[in-house]
């Protein structure tokens, strides 16, 4: 089978206001603005192979997350990597950003937690790197 898909190119996120969302993503996630249109914006990490973030300003009220019906846990669909999970969690809390509990495996130190952007989109942070990352 030919290799058509090689990586994730872009993650699309609905927001109610680009003017509120862009500063949050720049400060918290560390992205730069590639371009900003009237109702959309492209944000980038400026690293090879890392997806861009395309924001679309919309009045739609549905936000990104899903509930696992097996255990009733709400999941994000985006996990951002950080080497300093505890430090990032504390940093978010000092800024009043809604962050869930820090879940770290006691034996290997791997884990993560969820946090929300200004529109209530559920995002996650993890210190887990997978093969090829």
UniProtKB/TrEMBL annotation:
Annotated VOC domain ranges read 4-128
For this protein, the parts annotated as crossing the membrane are: none
- Do you know which InterPro entries this protein is assigned to? Glyas_Bleomycin-R_OHBP_Dase, Glyas_Fos-R_dOase_dom, VOC_core
Pfam families per record:
Glyoxalase (PF00903)
Coiled-coil stretches:
none
Q: What is this protein called?
A: VOC family protein
């Amino acid at each position: 089978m030919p290799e058509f898909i090689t990586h994730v190119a872009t993650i699309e996120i609905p927001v109610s206001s680009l003017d509120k969302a862009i500063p949050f993503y720049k400060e918290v996630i560390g992205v730069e603005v590639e371009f900003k249109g009237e109702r959309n914006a492209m944000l980038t990490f400026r690293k090879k192979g890392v997806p861009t973030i395309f924001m679309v300003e919309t009045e739609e009220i549905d936000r990104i997350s899903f509930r696992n019906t097996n255990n009733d846990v709400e999941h994000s669909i985006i996990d951002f990597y950080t080497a300093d999970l505890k430090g990032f969690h504390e940093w978010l809390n000092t800024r009043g950003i809604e962050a869930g509990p820090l879940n770290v495996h006691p034996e290997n130190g791997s884990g993560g937690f969820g946090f929300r952007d200004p529109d209530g989109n559920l995002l996650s942070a993890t210190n887990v790197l997978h093969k090829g990352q």
